[in-house]
Amino acid sequence: MTDKPFKAALFDLDGTLIDSMPYWKTLAEDFLDRRGITPTAEEKHAVERLSLAQSAFYIKNRYCLDESPDQILKEFNMMIDSIYRTDCSLKPGAAEYLAELKRAGIKMALVTITAKKSAKKVTKRLGINGFFSHIVTDLDAGKSKNHPDIYLMAAKKLRSAPEDTAVFEDSVTGGTVAKKAGFKVYAVRDGSNADKFEEFLALCDGPAPWQ
Fold it and tell me: Which CATH number is 8-20+89-207 given?
């Protein structure tokens, strides 16, 4: 038996389990810098609200690049893959909490906008891949985290109803969407959400235990 108020748990990856958001924040900017392009503050903000695939389309059209959106997305993923191989670390206490849930018999899955191949690599390198029975991405769901589809798909794979499922998120958008869809949501503090964290936490069921 478990004393947890949920039977299954869905974890975001970047900014939630691993300290990678600083790299994500400058990904599009670094991509454009390789081409001698400096985006405006407005353009940076626009990209920050998009998934990788959406960002590829935006950048292609905004800057009239020769590369196709698929080619841009491929380079994005190569850049992320390189970062994941060497630079990202686990957030303190995250692995211990995953182990606690596993001992309690809680089923777990990852929900991420990171390419599945890259997510598998970084979780394996950091020793947490064995905690998750499934990895669900925005490409699997067909929509970004502006929609609940990715959380609903992951919960279905774990055979758990939203009301019996916890979502751990640093994304204010994702967490808010999951909460509206009936999930229990636990807010993860990260540098990327520092200015909105207290407001985000007020909407959630509590803070993530490892922070």
Answer: 3.40.50.1000
Residue range(s) in the chain whose domain bears CATH number 3.40.50.1000: 8-20+89-207
At a CB cut-off of 8 Å and minimum separation 6, what does 174 contact? 12, 145, 151, 167
Instruction: Please tell me the distance from the alpha carbon of residue 161 to that of residue 102, in angstroms, as a whole number.
Output: 19
Q: What's the predicted TM-score (pTM) here?
A: 0.85
CATH 1.10.150 spans which residues of the chain?
A: 22-86
Nearest CA to 14 among 157, 193, 146, 184? 193
The H-assigned helical ranges of the chain are: 21-25, 27-33, 41-48, 52-63, 69-86, 94-103, 116-125, 138-141, 149-157, 172-180, 197-203
Query: In this predicted structure, what is the pLDDT of residue 2?
Result: 62
CA distances, 98 to each of 26, 89, 133, 156 (Å): 29, 15, 13, 20
In this structure, the dihedral spanned by the alpha carbons of residues 110, 22, 170 and 181, taken in order and rounded to 10 degrees, is: -70
Per-residue pLDDT of 110-160, as tens digits, reads 999 888 988 999 999 999 999 999 999 998 999 889 899 999 999 999 999
Q: Which residues in the chain show pLDDT less than 50?
A: 1
CATH class for the domain made up of 22-86: mainly alpha
Contacts of 60 (CB under 8 A, 6+ apart): 67, 68, 69, 72
The token pair that represents 21 in the structure block: 């958001």
Q: Look up residue 9 and give its amino acid.
A: A
Dist CA 138 CA 128 (whole Å): 21
